[in-house]
Amino acid sequence: METLEQIKARIEAAAPGARVEIVPNGSPANQPSLLLDAGHARAVAQFLRDDPALAFDYASNATGVDWPGKTIKEKIKVKKMVEGVEKEVEEVCEKKTPAYLEAVYHLYSMARKHGPLILRLRTANRADQVSLPSLTPVWRSCEFQEREIFDLYGIHFEGHPDLRRILMWPEFKDYPMRKDYVEPDDYEYEPTPHDAVLTRAREHYPGGTPA
Amino acid sequence: MSAGAISSELAEPAAEHQLLEVSLGPQHPSTHGVFRMDVSLDGEVVVKLKPVFGYLHRNHEKIAEKCSYLGSIPYTDRLDYICSLTNNWAYAMTVEKLAGLVAPERAEYIRVMLSELTRLINHSALAGFLLQDMGALGTPLMYAFREREKILDLFESLTGARMMCNYMRFGGCRCDLPPGWIEQTRSLVANFPSFLDEFEALLTGNEILLARTEGVGVLSKELAVNAGVTGPMLRATGVNYDIRKVDAYGVYGRFSFRVPLGERGDVFDRYMIRILEMRESLKILEQALRDIPAGPIIDPKAKLRNLRPKPGEAYGRIEGPKGELGFYLISDGGPNPYRYRIRPPSLINLTILEDMCLGQTIADAVVILGSVDIVLGEVDR
Description:
The complex is a heterodimer. The longest helix of chain A has 12 residues, at 142-153. In chain A, the strands form three sheets. Chain A has a five-stranded mixed beta sheet, with helices on one face. Chain A has a two-stranded antiparallel ribbon with strand order 4-5. The mean pLDDT of chain A is 84. Chain A is an alpha/beta fold. In chain A, 21% of the residues lie in helices and 32% in strands. Chain A starts with a helix and ends in a 7-residue tail after the last helix. The radius of gyration of chain A is 25 Å and the shape is flat. Chain B is of the alpha+beta class. In chain B, the strands form three sheets. Chain B has a three-stranded antiparallel beta sheet. Chain B has a three-stranded antiparallel beta sheet with strand order 6-7-8. Chain B has a two-stranded antiparallel ribbon with strand order 4-5. In chain B, a hairpin with a 7-residue loop joins strand 7 (323-331) and strand 8. In chain B, helix 5 (105-133) packs antiparallel against helix 12 and helix 6 (139-159) runs antiparallel to helix 7. The A-B interface holds A 25-29, 31, 57-61, 63, 65, 104, 106, 110, 113, 116, 118, 139-145, 152, 166-169, 176-177 and B 53-54, 57, 59, 61-62, 97-100, 223, 225-230, 239, 241, 246, 309-317, 324, 326, 328, 330-331, 338-339, 341, 343, 347-348, 350-352, 380-381.
């Protein structure tokens, strides 16, 4: 297989305007990945599949990752006037790393028997701009996996033929795999007549019910 | 009223074109667990089929993200509960990649043997279930399960459990082979071909089996590759892609075995590929039993408890009995994985279930589903 730098150069030549960035991987596995911009992702995917030397005809794995963004506290030394004298004072300044959802694709070539090539796509944020282009038209194997990402992470895949919840039920509201998901206290909660009794009891003993 | 008006009136309701919607499952013996298919039927012919999942969903991935690396190993047993040992291996291998551990040679041999025994279990059980779906109630399944029991006994003597083995660890295996295990396995391997011969004499040439499987559920090469179908399903279409050969992970590079390929990609090919793969597995087992070296079974550097790999990510995959079983782990340097993803072969092989079933009868759809070989513990996770 060509090196990641070569593939990056080939992509940039084949899809003008595409921004490609190599994301390093710190683990001994040494599997760095390519970060694509969402606008050109479909064209790049098409190129990776159809180029005879690369021939990534098989998208093995597609998954989502949630990066909620952290606030990092840094201590910076600042010069300040303290009681009329200039002094160096340590100040804590907070930095926020960007929050986004990520879709990761692992590509292999069955024709040439090489791989993996790892693609990453990132949404603009985690709240309202969560759409990414679907790669299902290029690799059919992403169909259920992108549905799963939509279901569990809430990334909206544009151009997906059948984007519905797959593991959770259709009425379910939240995205359970996000890091800030809060489990309900009781999955099968239903108000019962007993609730009314409890409320009355609470009103009757404002200081808490006697044991 | 003219004659023309009457005929147009008669043609209008068109009762024979009304589609019948059937919800097949989730509680149905042919769905291999709690799996549902929303099927639209035109007479007996399937015109639409949408699989519905999630009845067994417990968000395994979220649980694992709250567990330590070691704590997830017993959970991986419950994915594809027929093949717990291959699940163990895929996970252990990915953590090894992530943390830079190397399993000793003896452990790798044990892993190969256990995963080939698992393949025997899976394929023989599948062949039995497939026949059951075709209406051969009981007998073939019991023949297959008889052999499965013998292998489960071996698992029990080694790991202490028959199905939920929880045996492999990153960096090696949990305990060494008990005395006599190699000899018992050798005699099982020597006797297994006679079971296969018996099974095949009973079934492979059987007229009813041929009628129910030949030309049914044909899958083309191009679609299979594009849809990410892996394992025996893929090789039945004639694509030569076996991860044991392509990646040669573990010590698979040292064994000589062939990869059986199908020609037409129908249900019969899928059945036959599995029978042939069992014979190849036996060859690997013979070689592994002959060559297994002495030595330690776990990397002394492997820190099982409180493992904190460096920040980074790894994707590891093995050729599971059902197809490519992959794990994708991201570490943020903490004691539990930041992201833990399973690439389930059963789920992804179902992507093209509708394509295979369209135009077939509902009875064939059941057989086609049986030939995909799904386990719902893995599909729903």
